[in-house]
Amino acid sequence: MQTTFTAEQLKDSATRESNTILRTCVHCGFCTATCPTFQLLGDELDSPRGRIYLIKDMLESGRPATEEVVRHVDRCLSCLSCMTTCPSGVNYMHLVDHAREYIEHTYQRPLPERLLRRTLAFVLPKPGRFRLALRGAALARPFVGLLPQGLFRTRVQAMLKLAPKRLPPPEPMQQPQVHKAQGEKRGRVALLTGCAQQVLDPGINAATIRLLTRMGIEVVIPPGQGCCGALTHHMGQTSKSMAAARANLRAWGKAIEKGGLDAVVINASGCGTTVKDYGFMFRDEKPKWKSRAEQVSALAMDITEVLAKFNYAPLRPTPNLTVAYHSACSLQHGQKITALPKQLLQKAGFTVKEPAEGHLCCGSAGTYNLMQPEIAGQLKARKLENLNRTGAQLIAAGNIGCLTQLGDGSLPTAHTVELLDWMAGGPVPPAVRGVLGARREPVV
């Protein structure tokens, strides 16, 4: 693709990177075949290729973003399925992230949308605020019908629907501390406990800590770490995402200096994709921050990668359960981890089924199911139908967003690490407890 950026425009690092990305695209259109929004809407501008044209025109012209550009970019899930499909290696992730930052600086959204985005950016990355907001959701449900019909009401309804009616209590294990390895120490890792996951399902972090420490791995929960920055990063609020990332780099840097780390373990794949990109995000920062970010990016590993590295082995007999494995987009497309989670589940004794259209997004995509509830709802229904067709008894996935999105379907959901922890001596996950209870089998 030919571009016409001026020498002055190319002085900007983000523009230079986007120029390189745009020149990589050969217009082949392979990306349209695997783009969820194009599959649903059939509009070329709601495909990666169409958005690339819109972004190119916007950036080259230097004009403020238009309503048309914003509408189609906002509909992008950042599922990155297009990057898996692209034969030319177009880094669409970095391009659309630049576009979102440009939109944030040049386009004024309607007031209700600005308020909603600011609220999400204020609440979701902070577990205390998020827990309080979820408690308030129960009080708000009876009054949502009083809101005027429209997109704002639809979005509020989507938020209230996703909010659990009952919150699990806080998990002390995920507070800042050091969890000693059991038996001979084989390694030392830091665990990113996340933000929304801490509140929605703290059992995921607890299962991770139990499993790793039983395998002889010391698990550090460093003080000062927090949200990875993905939530605000994908809203184009770069200063906030960089501040969140910087706090994590400080926290993990201290852990590295104190005793070294074999990995920064991440059990929410959406966070993992972002942390593995810290090196790129900090490419123009001072050498101290740039080198630390590159170091952390190299250390960042999904929990399944860590388990494979340290030779995970089950202890319990085969559970005689069939699991439908839902491959989160951020894991299969963002991190290119596809076979490993399934292999670990099979090693643990589960029969693993894969749904049709496994490459398509479930519609969660960070805050997407809150900002684009209609499209997200269609993708969710399509995904649940394919999962149900597998004949499995429960769904396994490696991302809290997907688990929340799919959790109110007919199949119970569990994080992959919860199932692996159970089969290596941990407690029965709540999802499995229900399945075993229905089969009237003893819970072990």
Describe the structure.
It contains 24 helices and nine strands. With 444 residues, it is an alpha/beta fold. It has four domains: 9-106, Fumarate Reductase Iron-sulfur Protein, Chain B, domain 2, CATH 1.10.1060; 111-162, no CATH class; 172-307, Rossmann fold; 312-438, 3-Layer(aba) Sandwich (Rossmann fold). The strands form two sheets. The chain has a five-stranded mixed β-sheet with strand order 1-3-2-4-5, with helices on both faces. Helix 22 (400-406) links the parallel strand 8 (394-397) and strand 9. Helix 1 packs across helix 6 and helix 11 crosses helix 23 (416-423). It is globular and about 60 Å long. The chain starts with 12 loop residues before the first helix and ends in a 6-residue tail after the last helix. The mean pLDDT is 93.
Q: How many structurally independent domains?
A: 4
Tell me the β content. 5-15%
* Number of distinct beta strands: 9
Shape annotation: globular
Overall average pLDDT: 93
The radius of gyration is: 22 Å
Instruction: Indicate the CATH topology of the largest domain.
Output: Rossmann fold
Task: Describe the largest sheet.
Answer: 5 strands, mixed
What's the architecture of the largest domain in CATH terms? Answer: 3-Layer(aba) Sandwich
How much helicity do the residues have? Answer: 40-55%
- By secondary-structure content and strand pairing, the structural class works out as alpha/beta
Low-confidence stretches: none
Number of helices: 24
The side-by-side strand order for the widest beta sheet comes to 1-3-2-4-5
| Top CATH class of the largest domain | Alpha Beta
Give the N-to-C terminal Cα separation. Answer: 59 Å
